Amino acid sequence: MSRAPAEPIAARISRELADRIVAGQIAAGSRLRQDHVAVEFGTSHVPVREAFRRLEAQGLVESEPRRGVRVCGVSLDEMREIAEMRAALEVLALRHAAPHLTQSILDEAEEATRAGDRAGDVQAWEEANRRFHRLILSPCAMPRLLRSIDDLQTASARFLFAGWRAEWETPTDRDHRAILAALREGDLAAATAVLARHVQWIGQGPKRRPPLVR
Amino acid sequence: MSRAPAEPIAARISRELADRIVAGQIAAGSRLRQDHVAVEFGTSHVPVREAFRRLEAQGLVESEPRRGVRVCGVSLDEMREIAEMRAALEVLALRHAAPHLTQSILDEAEEATRAGDRAGDVQAWEEANRRFHRLILSPCAMPRLLRSIDDLQTASARFLFAGWRAEWETPTDRDHRAILAALREGDLAAATAVLARHVQWIGQGPKRRPPLVR
DNA sequence: TCCATCCAGATTATAGATAGTTTTCTTGTC
DNA sequence: GACAAGAAAACTATCTATAATCTGGATGGA
């Protein structure tokens, strides 16, 4: 069949650039010039501009009217802000998702936690961590809320990759298991409390070295 | 003087379309066709497409890859979702803003409440209401949070204008004054509790008539 | 005979490329 | 340090291609 992808080029560019920004391959504060990006992707700058708007909405770049776009910074303040927003919104989502959680979803979440334990690098751990959160939150059936949470998780991942690569994993698996245990017992209050603390833990920043603002 | 605005056309189009959608001049569910909009504004379709991306980020329209964009619906579920998100985020913002609130800010907020009392139509009331919230929240100095809240308030206004035009105003001024009183006394817990209830009250929907989904 | 389904052509709309204009930044000169 | 000329980049318009939708009509079945 070899059906043409039918995915607009703008979407592809925005995905690719988002990945690079999150991975830290594009430095914070650096300018993105539409012609250069266009040349690199072998397209014109028109879809590039649309991709920029998308990244702007995700909070990965900021744009000034006639002066181009630049990658957002990764300061400690921004990190805390995002962590607190995540905590507030994920608690809300979990509160609505809890009544619709099934045994099989909880089992899948358990498996995601184990995958996080087995993860050898940050990327794999982050993916497992995000899968865990998505699993227990998406049954809330609130699409706008889930989209916001997803954008915030992307931004969180950016901090994770940018700053410190050592101290992931250890306490999170405990938190994940505590959340699952509370959910299995129907103790929603305990589950949301642990979730809030767990998310904000990420926002506490590095214990030893500063967050490598490039 | 008379400096050319230097505001990109895309920004102007997105503002104008957002106003119309919020005001209910463009029906929920109707399609927006880029070259029609372009003809109306006397431009090409390129800035129109960028405006669409902006509206999509604000949650006013939804876009399918090669099938165009259409105005989001205004169901009761979406309304509740937005109200709950607002409650969660505005409480967070107030918690961080409270330490930085000054006497003059509270006085201005009081004045905004009075302006809401005096408002003769929904538009004026909505503007005063939004000014009140912005005043007491913006000292939190969390730009990303404030942007999210602003988008949610825009969506709220849409429901307000779309569905029912009778029952605004009455209880809200009481809530606003209760929030201000609690803030003046330094009772942050009471202030956030009233704020959360107050915001979710909007999400309760019309008491008598259904929300006029067009 | 009437109705539903499906297909081909025409029409419409989205998406992207190319080219030109305007604004901003840079560099060289006084 | 200020200013002007040049370069670079953002922004928009026009044109083109590709995908989706709509129309009419044919076919098959009850």
UniProtKB/TrEMBL annotation, chains A, B:
Record InterPro entries: GntR_C (IPR011711), TF_FadR/GntR_C (IPR008920), Tscrpt_reg_HTH_GntR (IPR000524), WH-like_DNA-bd_sf (IPR036388), WH_DNA-bd_sf (IPR036390)
On whether Translocase is a keyword of this UniProt record, the answer is no
Q: Which GO terms describe its molecular function?
A: DNA binding; DNA-binding transcription factor activity
Q: Which Pfam families match?
A: FCD, GntR
Asked whether the UniProt record includes DNA-binding among its keywords, one would answer: yes
Concerning CDD domains, the annotation shows: WHTH_GntR
Q: Which UniProt keywords apply?
A: DNA-binding, Transcription, Transcription regulation
Start and end residues of each HTH gntR-type domain: 7-74
- Record-given protein name: DNA-binding transcriptional regulator, GntR family
State the species of origin: Paracoccus tibetensis
